[in-house]
């Protein structure tokens, strides 16, 4: 799982556009200070960037829920896989 973190970070930042940087990846060793987390959360809560990220997250969440409902693409694929396995 640890080896996927940089790929996941790129997905979140470059593709989904839902990133707020706490610290640079090159500085990943060590513990993040509480004061830094506080400042990032405050920035997120009080900025246009934070509002944009929340809107994007809501849209992504709705899209994911839609695919898992009956008739949704993920649900259809899962049902197809199960039917294949149990035949």
Task: Give the helix/strand layout.
Blueprint: H1 5-15, H2 34-45, H3 48-68, H4 73-86
Task: Tell me about this structure.
By secondary structure, the chain is mostly helical. Helices cover 67% and strands 0% of the residues. The longest helix is centred in the middle third of the chain and has 21 residues, at 48-68. The chain starts with a helix and ends with a helix. The model has no long low-confidence stretch (mean pLDDT 87).
Key attributes of the depicted protein:
Cis-zeatin O-glucosyltransferase, UDP-glycosyltransferase activity, single chain, 4 helices, elongated, 67% helix, 87 residues
Which whole number gives the mean pLDDT?
87
- For the report, how would you describe the main beta sheet? none
The N- to C-terminal Cα distance equals 33 Å
Please estimate the helix content.
Answer: 55-70%
Tell me the strand percentage band. Answer: under 5%
Based on secondary structure, the structural category is mainly alpha
Task: Detail the poorly predicted runs.
Answer: none
Overall spatial form: elongated
Radius of gyration: 18 Å
Order of helices and strands: HHHH
E-strand count: 0
By DSSP (H or I, 4+ residues per run), the number of helices equals: 4
Protein name: Cis-zeatin O-glucosyltransferase
GO molecular function, one term: UDP-glycosyltransferase activity
